[in-house]
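user: At home tonight, take the chain set out below, taking as long as you need, and be ready to discuss the fold:
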Amino acid sequence: MASLNMDRLLQACVSQGASDIHISVGRPPTLRLDGHLRALETKVIEPDDSAALMKSITPDRCQQELQEEGGTDYGFAFGEAARFRVSVFKQKGCFSMVLRQIPSKLLTFDEIGLPKICAALCRRPRGLFLVTGPTGSGKTTTLATMINYINENFDRHIVTVEDPIEYYHPHKKSIINQREVGVDVPSFAEALRRVLRMDPDVILVGELRDLETMSNAIRAAETGHLVFSTVHTTSAAGTVNRIIDVFPVDQQEQIRTQLAGNLIAVLSQELCPLATGRGRCAAYEFMVVTPAIANLIRESKTYRIDSSIQTGKKLGMQLLDEHLWMLYDTGKITLEEMLEKGRQPGALQQKALNKMGAAKGKLKKKAEEAKKELEDMGPILKT
């Protein structure tokens, strides 16, 4: 019965286009639709229900990890319909689950609104390309799009290290090998230590979690590989600072030099619900590492990166607030959403007020012109 119930939940998630299913004792199963939580009209979950639902889809090795560590993560295929990234954890002595739906369709750069220069950067023979943003901001989808672009267009050996594997990539023009942490290799650091012996051209590291993984990723980029990864930061300058700050003070000068020479781009993103109420779009901050920006990183002047991004528009660079304003100005997102996601909400709010004031001024001028026109026409209408 539990398996059937889980199948129904998964089917509801797929058919309604939800991004997540939340299973927690004390409330009904809940879907995340377009960024909002929506409870399903079913019974409230009891401890036995959550345990049965968990056991119906969780592999034995993950159930053992759950008992020992209090939590586990794994990938799960729902037939041909969809794949899910599953997080199971214990809370108040009961089991809870969050299942994130992984879209089966790999998207193009245009479909997710990536800057066109991303395609050119994916052709680079070496360097470090970071995609950053909070949890649930679409980093995995962006990386999958880039990997798929390389896979379709170039003959490369691509090695990915993920926890767990989310998008499954078939071999196309490239050879692609996907390693799952906990299944194929014990850790990100161990995978990165061994990957250089595999004759890779492109390496995807699911996340730069610790000093050793960061150090190995930078070294892989330095030794002639194109490396993609993610960091949980919300801006380009913040990403550079986060990486440098992870290292001991006596190593930071060396890391600055390595980053300046090997970082090629940082793409920071946020997912915003559309003003229509259905669907979401991504807002991007994009930094391409030019010689000027490399110099700022080397000289520890990251506070000046934002102004370099503003002057680099011809390379497709933009600040997050600039993209949020464009999305608001074209009616794609609401004012509230722009202010919530913006890094300088005060400046954005003032810009919106100025726009509204200008719009009122134009309407007033048009009304006065129309009134004068009618007045001028008055004698003509009487005759």
Observations:
- The mean pLDDT is 89.
